[in-house]
Every structure is written in structure tokens, then in C-alpha cells.
Structures
1.
Amino acid sequence: MRRINFQSELRSVFKEIGQIARKLGYSVYIVGGPVRDILLGRSFQDVDVVCVGNAVKLAKVFSRRVKGEFIYRRRYPNATVKWNNSAKVDFVSARSEVYPKNRIGLPRIRRTKDLLIDLNRRDFTVNAIAVDLNPGTFGNLYDPFNGLLDCQKKLIRVLHPNSFKEDPTRIFRAIRFSMELSFQIEENTKKLLNRDLKFLKQLSQARLWKEIKICLNDGSDVLNYLKKFGVLRVLNFSYPGQGFLERVDVGSIQFDVNPVNTLILALIEKKPARCYSFERSFIQQINYVREINNKALRNIEVVHKLFKLEDYSLLFLFARYPKNSIIIENFFDNREKLKPELNGEDIKKLGVNESPEIGKLMKRIIEGRWIGKISGRNEEVDLVERYLGGKDVSW
Ligand code: CTP
């Protein structure tokens, strides 16, 4: 029997959980991501504890013991305990899952007393290994699907042939884990993944985009993987090109922008925004970005459009139009200096009647700053006076 030696801090927390569970008449295990990461010598943040018994009750007692925060979730149900600012353990009761037969949807869930049934509902062998936290058997590995061997062979392997069909989000998970862990997707699993790609189209928009965002958080290279495994093709997404992805990487560091939404803009570039149920503000950004191209970027009036864009949209333009990327760079670097010092009231005081002309003058001032003709208040006042003198103030 293989045993896990936890580092001392974890060891005492896990022992505590095991002892509380024993008193309550339950048994407990850690399962999934943290076990996989311990076996691979990787660091991990969240610990998932599976309780054969009432996980919420266990979490409640544990939270009192460590004087932590107890967070109850009605779904499943489960609970999280947070303490010492950073430590966090999720408690969930061992359960079985039965998926709907004729459609893609969430499974029907039942509590089970059999840990094997809980492990059997999981996605990949490397995520279906449990470590025993119970007194007497503490640290023992329970590995009914040979996940340890797959960790050693660096393979992502499903537990049964219907895994992707039942839960197509696992297609993203397989690709993401293979990328994150530098694992291969095992040959038969690859065939099943390919066979079941079509079920991705049946996922609800909410589940689909949640999974895509998790993937994109891993960086732009994930798009190459999604392309390689046929996901982009099946979902009718655009592949923006390696050059674009490299410029996104450079720009996201240079301008300190999270590129997830930038990459989404690229994926849906060739489809009307109304095809997706995005939030209104994001749809607005899609429309603004699509009004701009190389020609528009060279027009000084583009500056007003750039002000309407979120940073991720600016990053998109930076990567999409490399011939004019300097314009976006300039905007990122100088946008604070582009704002007029004069406000509407000041312009009125200089003698301009209340009218749309005030807005137009403000725009001319911004453009003057954008092209380097105005750098301070005096030059702004000059422009207003030129206007009052009947002169053309366009640039
Ligand atoms: N799981 C699953 N199918 C899914 C999602 C999750 O079988 N579609 C199971 C896996 O056993 C997984 C566990 O639930 O290990 C916890 O899921 P999650 O926290 O999303 O992933 P981790 O494996 O912990 O990996 P990470 O947090 O590193 O993404």
C-alpha cells in the first residue's frame, strides 16, 4: 500500500479533519486535484475533502476548531472553510452522478456511502485517486483506476467511454490538463474526445464560456491546443494566428492587461455579436472594436473611439493591427495627458454660448493633445479664442 507523507502543516490539519470525522462516525479522504498535484510534486491551493457522511456538518465542526470562516453552499450541498487568511478546504459528501440519457445537462446527484462510486463519477484517472485521512489508515493511497501509473506515464485517461458525452466540459479539462501538466492525452481517450467533440455544441452558453475562460486564463497558447484538438472548428471559432497570440502576450505584459477577454474577442471575430448571450457591456465593446481598422486608426478622430474601449479591447487592436500598434501604445502611455484641462464651464466663461459647440471644442482639444499640438491650458484657451475669432479650429 502506497502512503503519502504530507508536509508537517498539512499533516496536522488533515489529521484533525480525520479525527473529527471519526467522532462523527464518518470517513474522509482528499481527492482530485490536490492528490494529483502532491503525486506530481506540484504546489496546490485548494484542498477537496470527500466525506462519506455529512460534509457540511464536518465542515462546521472543523471551522469551529480552527476558528475559521464557514461558507455553506446549497448546491450538492457542500461547504468551504477558510482560515489563517490563505488556507482553504472544500468539503463535499461522497456522491454518485447519473447523467440525463438523451440530452447534455447536469447530472442527478445522490449521496453514497461507497467511496468507489464517488471516484467512479470523476473525469480522469489522475483525478480519481484518494488519500485516506482516517485514523489508523492515515495517508494510504486508494487508487482503483491506476491513476498513479498514469501520473508516472504522464497520461490523461478517461474512466469510461461516455465520459466526454456525459460532460463535454471535460473536453476542455483534458486539453487544459494536458497543457498545464505537460501530459499526453492517451490514444483511446483522444479518439473518444474526437468522437464526442460535437456534444460541445449542446452545452449551455454559461457552461461553455465558463470553461473557455478557465482555459484562457492559462495563457494564449491554449488556443493552439484548442485548434489542434478540433474544438475551434466544431464551435465555429476563429483562430487569430500565432503572430496575434504572440503580440497579445507581449502587450498584456507591457500594458498590464488581463488578456482573457482579448482572446474571446479574437475567437468570435467573424461572428455577429448577437450570436452569443454576452453581457451588454461586452457586446458594446465588440461593436466598438469592430468599428476600428487600420484606416480608422490613422484618422485623428479615432482617439474619441479609443476612449470608449476597455483595456482588453485596446490590447485586441494592438495585436490585430501591428502596422499601427504604435498608435495604441501611444494611447496607453498618454491617455491621462489627453484629457482637457478646460471643462465646459471654463469654455462658457471664455464666451462660447451653451450649445453642442462646447462638446465639439472639447473634442478638438483632445485631438490637439493627441497629435502633440496642445500640451497645456494656455494652448487650449488659444484654441477657444481662435474659434471665437471665427477661425477654423479643425486639425
Ligand atoms: N471533476 C470531474 N468532472 C468535471 C469537473 C470536476 O470529474 N467536469 C472532478 C475531478 O475529479 C476533479 C474534481 O472534480 O479533480 C475537482 O474539480 P476541480 O476543482 O474543477 O479541478 P481540479 O482537478 O481540482 O483541478 P484544478 O483545480 O487544478 O483545475
2.
Amino acid sequence: MPEPAQTYITTPIYYVNDRPHIGHCYTTLLADVTARFYRLLGGQSDAGNGRSQDVFFLTGTDEHADKVVTSAAAHNVTPIQWADKNAEEFKKAFAFMNCSNDDFIRTTEDRHKSKVLEYIRALQKKGDIYLGDYVGWFDESQEEYLTETAAKEASFVSPVTGKPLVKKVEKNYFFKLSAYQAKLQAHFDANPSFVLPEARRNEVLGRFREGLQDIPISRAVTADPTSQWGIKMPDDQSHRIYVWIDALFNYLSVVDTPERQNFWPPTVHYIAKDILWFHAVIWPALLMALDRKLPATVYSHAYWVRDGRKMSKSLGNFVTIEVLQAYASKYSLDALRWYLITQGPQGATDADFSHAKFVEVYNADLANGIGNCASRVSNMIEKYFEGKVPEYQSTWIDRRWETTSADAVPAYLTAAKELDLSAAFEAASSLIKDVDDLISETKPFTLAKDMATNGQEVANILACCAESIRIASIMLAPAMPQKMAELWAAWNCTPDASAPLAELCAFNGPRGIKPGHRIAKGAALFMRADTAEAPPA
Ligand code: ME8
């Protein structure tokens, strides 16, 4: 993927009929880690809040769905009161996850609504909108129109929630989606990473071959009070803009200002597979119609499931925010972030949320991984060199790095730029493993029994380990910003946030740990977890 000078990362905007759960937190976390990675890459991160001017990370809420009205009525409040309450829950959830979003858009805000009207007017002017009759199927739970073929294939129930589809005969405004078939096909052909992962791209292309039909972009305003909720069509108050069209425009409306316009087009839209068609086909066609550039990538991940089953309201098996908070307070928030990012469904396959797996990964990667490795090295530096990095032979440690670990940083960079986050962190973890192997193999604790003879060798080994850990910690920071900041505080090596990643990660380079540098032992970053313990609740 080309490296854009400005990076723009988005998540879906979530429905406010209900509270957030693990799925919403996961997609927003993927976006957060990517945003932190890009800030680090360009040397733009701000050590305080992790934000910068060259990366823009957006999340928010989708509020004009009919189910918001129904849900509000069931709770005896108005739709906007209900939306206010739940939008707040989403904000709190993402703050708890330590997500560094630069903005949070709510589709009920004026700054969004006014832009939506502008875009609809532009489409009308272009001749891409007409009034027609819709006869077909509607999935009320997903607010999605389905063609006869798609409805039949799904046995006339929602492919996502299993609820029966509703037959609709409506007068609607339509968008001429069919006019963009050839242009979209050409875009897919020329841009292999437009939709990732590949399985999802193939899915879209398969459906695409059946041919595109024009789609409704408005719904009638009727006597039913529910139908009052939404943005009215320009110059026709008897129609409101279909919630999906309203929602998709959020990606553009937020940055379509003189100060932010350079962020367009998006680097990546993170979504899950449920809303792929909207993002991979309808949204790019709308952008083409508006003469706007298309996002570089639509990344459509799979689902978190629980005990092998889809999470749903009827099964009552959601991993709730409370469950996530219990994990964070027991094992630390960064351990939770680590588990979600490295074990989550970023690829095409669903991932099971499991306590046993959590503990296994926590112990292997964190307590016995970076945590133990950093303690071992700082303890030895304390014991043998009074807490100061010893004078070392740079040729020895450079050679050692070249033969064992030099590929970790490039592997990390490549994977992270390809948005393969678990592969990126795998590369960072492999560096920690190299340090552990180096210690097991050279046994500095044994050599140190005779410092008069072996002092230089012990110094070389420990300096090499310390420098490798410093580099690994920088690569791990997008996933575990708090824990790595703790380590940097103890090791007195907080990276200069204005330096680019390649420079920070240069082994034994100008920003490397120098002889005489003080390293404090510090508290253990991660305490080992007992596998037999019950899941936190
Ligand atoms: O679809 N596993 O909102 P929504 C992983 N408002 N991710 C999950 C998940 C799971 N089990 N469940 C949900 C909407 N998600 C529209 C979007 S965008 C212009 C409008 C995440 O509240 C995932 O990102 O139903 C999925 O795409 C999104 O929540 C759907 O959120």
C-alpha cells in the first residue's frame, strides 16, 4: 500500500439503539492501534494523548435508525434522549479502551446533517437520483434492502439476525447504482487491496457479477411517528434520507472542512463482514458520483463469537463492557488490548472469546514474554553493573543483532503497513524471544560468577539485550501504550515522539541505549496468571 502523507482511519459508526459490546470495542481498537502505528511511523505521536496532526482517527454513532425510535419508546424516552444516553456509553467504552480517536461524530449533529443535504443536492444535480417505486424486501433489524434473489437465498430471513424479512412496496428516491458497475469493476481490478482480506474481496466480486441494481436512498414519512426520525430529503419533506446513506456520509462530512480536507481519502475504513456491501460497493459508487477519491482500503474483519456461537441478544451471550472491564482490572487494560488484537478475528475467520486462551496468551506473551524478559535483564544490570548499562564492545553487539534479530523491525513495518496487526506484533514478540534465547544460550548469570574473566562478555550480552528490549517496546507500544510507557519510565528511555519509527528502532543507533544509561528494575509489568482461576466477572 502506498504511504499517504496524511492518514485517515475510520470505524463504522455504531447504532445507538443499544449499548456497546466487545464487537464495537474491537473494531475501534483495531483502528486505534493502526492510528498509533501511523503516528509512530511518521514521528508524529504526542507522548501525552497519542494524537497528532497527520493522523486523523474517527469513530462515532449512527443515530437515525428506526430501531432507535422503537427502543426509545420502550424506555419511555424520546429518540434523541435515547441517542444521547447511548452515544455517551459508546464514548465511555472507547475511553475505557484507551482509544485515541481525534473526533467522535454523531449523525444527529448539525455539522453532519448540513453536509448530508449538500451531498444529496450534488447527486441530484448530477442526475444520479430519481423518484421510483420499490417493490422488494427489507431487513428491519439491519435497516437493509434486499433484492429478490438475495432474499430468496436467505430464505426470507435476515442473514444477520434471523428475523423475517418484510415485503415492501414504497415510493422512494433511488440512486443510480447500476450506472457505476463498470467503473467500480475497473477500480477493483486496478486496486487489489481495495477490499481486504482477500476472501471478502472475492465475496464482493462474486455478488458484483450478478449485476448492480439501483438502490432506494429515501424512505417515506408517514403518519407513523417513527417515520419522522431522520434527515428530510432536500425540497421534499415527505421523504427522509435512508439511514444507511446518511450514515455512510459521516466519513466525508467530518473532514470536509478547510482545516481537515487534506485527510481525504481515507487510508482504511475498518468494518466487519456484516456491512461489507455498503462499504465496498454502495459507498464507493456514491463517492464516484460526487467526484471524490475512494478510500485506499475497506478492511472487513470477521466476528468475535462466544463458545463457538454467534453473540446475540436472544442468546444473551454478549461479551459486555462489564466483562471487558473485569478482565482489564484483573490483568490490566493493555493485556486485554493485546489479547483482542493478537487473537481477534482480523482475518476471514471468526474468533472465540475464551478465558483459557486469554490466560494462555497472557502468560506466554506478556508475563513470561516481555514482562519477564525486561525484569531479567534489568535485574542483571542492577546486580552486575549497579543499574547502569555497562561499557560494551559495539562490534560484538552489532554482529549479534545482525545474525539474530535484524529482520524483526522490517518485518514489523511491512506487516503493520499491510494492516496485518497480529503479524506485526508477532515480529515484535519474536524479538523478545530472541533476547530470551540469547540469555539461555550464553548464560550471563553463570558467566557473572567470574566477572574478572567474563566481565566484558556479560556487558556485551546485557547491553545487546537491553537495546533489543528497547526496540521491541517501541514496536509493542501501539498495542500496549500504558505498559510500554511504564517500562520506558523505569528504563529512562521514553522515545522522542517527534522522531520517526525507523530512527527510533535503529539498533545501537543515535537513539539507542548508551553505556552509563541508568535502568531501574521497576515493578513487574505483568504478574503471572493462574490458569486454574475462574474467569473474572
Ligand atoms: O452496522 N464481532 O452499526 P452496528 C466483531 N450503524 N465486530 C462486531 C461484532 C462482532 N460480534 N458485532 C458488531 C451498523 N461488531 C451501522 C454502521 S457505518 C457507516 C454504519 C462491530 O452498531 C463491527 O465493526 O450494528 C460491525 O461492522 C459493527 O460493529 C456493526 O455495528
